[in-house]
Amino acid sequence: MRRRDLLAGTALTLLLAASGQARTISGALPWAPDAADPPRVVKPGGWQFFTPEEGAALEALVDRIIPPDPQWPGAKDAGVAVFIDRQLAGPYGSARGLYMRPPFQDGTPQQGAQSPLTPAERYRQALAALDKYCRSAFAGKAFAALTDGQKDKVIDGLHKGPLRLEGASGTAFFEQLLKNTREGFFADPVYGGNRDMIGWKMIGFPGARYDQRNWVERHNERYPLPPVGITGRPDWAMR
Amino acid sequence: MARRLPSTDVVIIGLGWTGSILAEQLTAAGLNVVALERGPWRDTATDFPPTYAQDELRYHIRHDLFLRPAQMTFTFRNKASQTALPIRSWGSFMPPNGVGGGGVHWNAETWRFLPTDFQLRTHLTQRYGAKFLPEDMTIQDWGVTYEDLEPCYDRFEYLCGTSGKAGNIRGAKQAGGNPFEGPRQRDYPTPPMKQPYAPTLFAQAASELGYHPFPQPSGNLSEAYTNPLGAAIGPCTYCGFCEWFGCGNYSKASPQTTLLPILARRSNFTARTESEVLRINLDRSRKRATGVTYVDSNGQEWEQPAELVLLCAFQLFNVHLLLLSGIGQPYDPKSGEGMIGRNYSYQVTSSVDAFFENKNFNPFVASGAIGMCIDEFNGDNFDHGPHGFVGGGYMGAVQTNGRPILGIRVPKGTPEWGAEWKSAATKNYLSSYECATHGSCYSYRDMHLDLDPTYTDRRGRKLLRITFDFHDNELKMSQFLTDRLAEIVQKMGPHTIEKKPRKGPYNVTLYQTTHTCGGAIMGTNPNTSALNRYLQSWDVPNLFVTGATVFPQNAGYNPTGTVGALTFWAADAILNQYLKAPGKPLVQS
Amino acid sequence: MRLLLATMLLLLLGSTTGIAAVDRQDSTEIAHGRYLATLGDCGACHTNPGGKPYAGGRPIATPFGTLLAPNLTPDRDTGIGAWSDDDFIAAVRDGVGHGGERLYPAMPYTYYTRMSRDDVAAIRAYLATLEPVTNHVKSNQLPFPFDIRTGMDVWDWLYFSPGKFKPVTGKSPEWNRGAYLVEGPAHCGLCHTPKNFLGSDENSQALQGSALQGWFAPDVTGAAHQGLGGWTVDDIAAYLKTGHNRFSAATGPMSEVITDSTSRMTDADLRAVAVYLHDQTAAPAETASAAPDDKTMHAGAAIYVDNCAACHYGNGSGSPGLFPNLQHSAMVQSADPTDLIRIVLEGTRSVATTGAPTGPAMPTFGWKLSNAEIASVLSYIRHSWGNSAAPVSADAVASQRQSLARGED
């Protein structure tokens, strides 16, 4: 510990005893400078989890789930595929922190998912099966090469069930994909999606702003401030 | 091989709300207290600062502040005829972790139960006759009255700085407050929170229907406040990142803001974090606790001897630890014998969605406990005779957040994806609203907790098994409350409403509340409870148990206010009675 | 010089006649000594954090290198147990060590000289009651040529004016008590008075702020913008007693001063200090600083509303006792913005005392805001709501960010 840390804070007793006992707090609240655990900023560019073919399929999928229109971009331009790629490359993809001990047995819908598949495995498996299905059903074309109408039909089939994937659950995959697409469209841009806060601008959500005291009693009024993310907004720069 | 530590006066298992309250009370009286917390230390500026706390993905969806199921989870089934399966990822409830426990990420909705809630069986039997109650309903009187607890509610509210408007001060009804509440000695310590648009519309509609709306009591404060211990709490900024999140600007009442700074300065208080208690140790007689055994993050086991053991962890963990420690008798639903695991209950919530034209609700201007509510249909505040169920709940327009990933609302029938969804999401985000009911959940013979036969944690210990479903009584109640709520919502002027009453079977994947209750309940008789009226174990007199664990059944309110009050009640009993004759039962069984 | 040496010799000789200034068996005398040690905050240097009281060994950073504070416990071999009372008084009031060597003015004898012999003897009586601790401390860790103590002969001749405090006629007893405390045992100027290149006080700018250990001890005179001009006497006293008042909170090196010294002073003494400081208005009239350009103010305002308002409020008024008021703040308007930059980069924790136990902390922004963004928002704050102080440059932020990362004090 740097000496000036001792000067900078109240006297603290933080014992990491040689005996290996856990952290002990006694005498004062512990504090250290620079202590923070902010999210790591996702930088777009390239795939960290998907192969280029998987990435292309995923971009095409999400861009139908939240499609572009003249007013607002779709999920692809919003970076949702990048978001999903980075999530799958990280602890979420490997189901870290979840209870993944066997035995895995099917239960009722009320008991929740009992699959040994991690999200990363599910995507890999389902995208491979989807690719196989499309090439067989659409004369050798991958999902990304289908028309919008064809894509929508495939997605609908996955969602409602009639489209069965070989070796993968289409409905479970769709549920996962839908969830992650919405996450990617509306999460803080630091995670790679919601590029330029486009999802927030679309609906009128102010993002990470923390002080709304002046707005509580302004009833039925439009909130005028642009959204801000954890990493800021354009107005922070001198222009 | 556990290494033995020097003995202490008191060991506290779990440093959340109840652990912190008891630690403060007992260290103030000069006792040496060691608190053991499974999770990490948590502090506002370093763990949930307003530089990155406002992250829906991380905290609400990826559950960053909560216990990892990989470390401890439960198995679940609706009925005993099913095989319980592990809850692999949290859904219906969110078990806390870390110093501050649920107090870090609660909504701060701070209610008192009704006087009749504490004498539930006696009261309902008197009013409706014993046959009115389902045969398998196991509700009980608590062994304490509202009058016993009133000073303790007051102390918890003044510890927190709770913002609200009293409805009944020493018998005199106060306009603008809850006319049904039990009498209180004085008003809340800070004024009620300011209300956004939709709650004011709700209140207007409710008044027009003859109800008495009032502001929900809030532990996120309406103004800066210094509590009796000298802790400074700030004014809430309506950020909309309240429940599920830590508060970044000291304005949510939590152990961090109300107690820990004072506790940390006391030389007779020590907290050890990343220390997981494995069991409460008993002596040969099995009637006296000698302390606890815990494991630290290096895998080293330690024995912490103590004269007094206080089990202050989250409700489900409390029951689990009692079972793993062999304290009391595990409950057997077939024979009805055994008190540990009996009378498990939950909360029955429902909602009404409403879609408006030309209204801007700014849903993101929000706080965990703001809102306007009515209590006409809670508890036994209305005649249940014609309706064929018992219980009730409060209802209101409670505006906790407008977070987009999970908060986007579209009318029924809208496709879940595609251009139509996108357009409906955009159109309705600012102009739709959800009102809610928050109903009681009474206890039944078959709803219980025990040890799972198959699944274990990473240390090979059996997981706690939850057997729970909604009974007809609760589903009827929920339908009734939802219908009444819908009438009010309709008067607010939406073009469309959608009623969403609670439907069975209970689904452990859908978030409802974290108000799991019971399993080691308090009462007047060791044949029908695990603890006496002072929360002292009938089986092991130098063990006290706190939290919603002690509720014989759950009422139509968020439990934390009552949990806090009962903790002060137990603290008084320990200080004024127990310590005069340590190790002795306070109530003769 | 010779006269000075001769005088010193006389004093030393005089002391060997062994006039006992203090009755060591008088508990009120010992308590008096303990209070004076609190006023002088001796423990701040002579007690190593986590170590035994007054056993020394704590490193003291100076612009010239590091010193280690000696062991003041009664241990005969490694502490001051073998010292006579006069030895101790000579060290504290005259800057002369046990072997006759000059002490470095990190030991604030230039201030303690204002105390009477009796007072210093009482401190000695108190120290003599402590548990003796064996801790051999080699104080002088300075690099060459500063480690040559005889250089201090010259320094003392240039800068040291020994002598007991003389009350100022025409001022109240309370003012004079405050003057004695500030200029004497509390040695505020050691941190708050700017230093010349040889490390001595610039007396013409007494208490007008000084940089040390990576912080800037602000102007504590009654100056309007950069000092405590916006505070009442009660505000100053409350701050010293609890570390907090309705405007501000103590942090950084001042935290220790509060917990170890001022929070343990009597209310009367705190008031006296406050009265004296409040009356110090010798600083030249401050001219309003130039405003930052529009671009900076716009960017700063946006950063402020998104990052700062949730605690410090839209108009900087904060929340009394919890979040400092950025209006009327000496720290905000100091000519030297070191503290502002440091606090924003690393975060900081305000002091926790019995009177104000929460000790709210400011989170770190160093990972979140760029140097330019920090410069913008600080410039904005320094020129809003009646504040007037020069803009902060991105370069200044960058330079401080680097030195903090290097672990430089």
List the helices and strands and how they pair.
The complex is a heterotrimer of chains A (239), B (589) and C (409).
Chain A lengths: L2 H6 L5 E2 L8 E2 L26 H14 L14 H10 L29 H19 L10 H13 L9 H17 L11 H6 L36
Antiparallel strand pairs in A: 1-2
Chain B lengths: L2 E2 L3 E6 L3 H12 L4 E4 L7 H4 L8 H6 L12 E4 L7 E2 L15 H4 L9 H4 L1 H9 L17 H15 L7 E2 L2 E2 L23 H12 L5 E2 L9 E2 L5 E2 L21 H4 L1 H5 L4 E4 L3 E7 L6 E7 L5 E11 L3 H11 L16 E4 L2 E8 L16 E3 L18 E5 L6 H4 L11 H10 L3 E8 L8 E9 L5 E6 L4 H20 L4 E5 L16 E3 L23 E3 L14 H17 L13
Parallel strand pairs in B: 1-14, 2-3, 2-14, 3-11, 4-21, 14-24
Antiparallel strand pairs in B: 4-5, 6-7, 8-17, 9-10, 12-13, 13-14, 15-23, 16-19, 16-22, 17-18, 18-19, 20-21
Helix pairs in contact in B: 1-15, 7-15
Chain C lengths: L1 H15 L10 H14 L2 H4 L12 E4 L2 E4 L16 H10 L14 H4 L4 H11 L12 E2 L9 H9 L13 H11 L5 H4 L17 E3 L2 E3 L15 H10 L10 H8 L6 H12 L15 H14 L1 H4 L17 H4 L4 H9 L1 E2 L11 E2 L8 H11 L12 H12 L4
Antiparallel strand pairs in C: 1-2, 2-3, 4-5, 6-7
What does this structure look like?
The complex is a heterotrimer of chains A (239), B (589) and C (409). Chain A is an all-alpha fold. In chain A, 36% of the residues lie in helices and 2% in strands. Chain A has a two-stranded antiparallel ribbon. Chain A is globular, with a radius of gyration of 23 Å. Chain B contains 15 helices and 24 strands. Chain B is globular, with a radius of gyration of 23 Å. With 409 residues, chain C is mainly alpha-helical. In chain C, the strands form three sheets. A three-stranded antiparallel sheet of chain C has the order 1-2-3, with no helix packed on it. Chains A and B meet through strand 2, helix 5, helix 6 and helix 7 of A and helix 2, helix 3, strand 5, helix 10 and strand 11 of B. Strand 2 of chain A pairs antiparallel with strand 11 (269-272) of chain B, so a sheet runs across the interface.
